Amino acid sequence: MTRTSLRTEIFAGLTTFMTMSYIIFANPAILAQAGVPLAGATTATCLGAAIATALMARMTDYPFALAAGMGLNAFLAFTVCQGMGVDWEIGMAVVVLEGLLIAGLVLLGLRRWVMEALPMSLKHAIGVGIGLFIAFIGFKMGGLVTAAPGTFVKLGDLGSAEAVVTIAGLLVTAACLAWRVPGALLIGIAAGAVLADAGFGMAKLEGVVAPPNFSTVWKFWRGLDAAASLRLLPVLFAFAVSDFFDTMGTVIGVGTQAGFVDRKGGMPRLTRVLFVDGIAASLGGILGCSSITTYVESASGVAAGGRRAVTGYVVAALFLVAIFLSPLAAAVPPCAVAPALIVVGFFMMQGVARIAWSKLEEGLPAFLTIVLMPFTFNIATGIGWGVLAAVAIPAARGRWRDIHPVLWLTAAVFAVSFSPLVPR
After folding, report:
1. DSSP label of 149
2. pLDDT digits (tens, 9 = 90+) for 386-399
3. Could you tell me if 360 and 65 are in contact, meaning their C-beta atoms sit under 8 angstroms apart?
4. For residue 220, how many C-alpha atoms fall within 13 Å in the half-sphere facing its CB?
5. Tens digits of residue pLDDT in 298-338
6. What phi and psi, each to the nearest 5 degrees, are found at residue 148?
7. What's the whole-model pTM score?
8. Residue 253 pLDDT exceeds 80
9. Which residue, 29, 80, 97, 56, is CA-closest to 285?
């Protein structure tokens, strides 16, 4: 049993909550772009994080915190809903199915197959590509990047209110990170919101506390039939793959820091962790806050000494309190959230150093995955072309037997989905 104390666990919970509480403002702002009611999304974000984190604590006794996943929420809002013209209720239904798929893989013992199927470089590339995708959205929301007829995109008007707020928030966030101030992203959002209100009258604060708003709960049921269509199969798979490997990387990374991982890379109760994460993803769709996943910010609580479930219970309790802060979240303009998205993209870019660029069969699929996510504004497209390249290159070299059967199957699914015969 890991040594700790109640005081240490409580402090660790407070630390974890501070470092990830930016999601209370970032997630509703992103989902609102897809037509999700902002007040309902705020309640769903906080309630989902509270339930999922408490469930993780109860079933695993680990200090892992969960909330709506950055990247997956942007994929849902901008690619699936805006880009494909899919109603947000249908998008939430896809999230429910994705979580059930992950939970089913864990229960059936197929987790190892899935883990072994994708090359390591491709796994890292998925995280890097999502980071670029998130950062691009941040630059766009903040007015730093805008559309241009001749060059597709260009630098935005740096004198605009949105750009000024974004740059100021980014500088504050960077300074807090440099000084290792807990809650740097949240402080950056707050600074941007204050400037937006005081300097440009952009924020519209209509109170601080309000009753919970459950307008997004259970709305996925309306889109369940459409979510199971062939057209959305690649989207379902992209959600599942991104969520699955992001969770594995987060859990193993944080678990190693906490001393939970042994020399062989094993970790007690890992199956329970992955199962809870799958159920949490479905919970996010049911509540209407996008896919809920394990947060790497849990590492801050571990660094503060958190080792047991009490850390998670503290985080869950604080998210329950935050449910009543929807008016505060509604007053934060998108440009104040933009710096958090840019910095999250920076964090996720660090995986690029782990890719074996000197090996064509690993480097080229990774490259296609990374660049096509932001270039096509579609996470599924990036993963799909990366998987196809990971199959095509070894096959062209006559190394058919080196390709995992699951990777063959995955490539076939993406090949069919990219076919012009499939309705868009």
Report:
1. T
2. 999 999 999 999 99
3. no
4. 24
5. 988 888 889 999 999 999 999 999 999 888 888 889 999 99
6. -145, 130
7. 0.85
8. no
9. 97
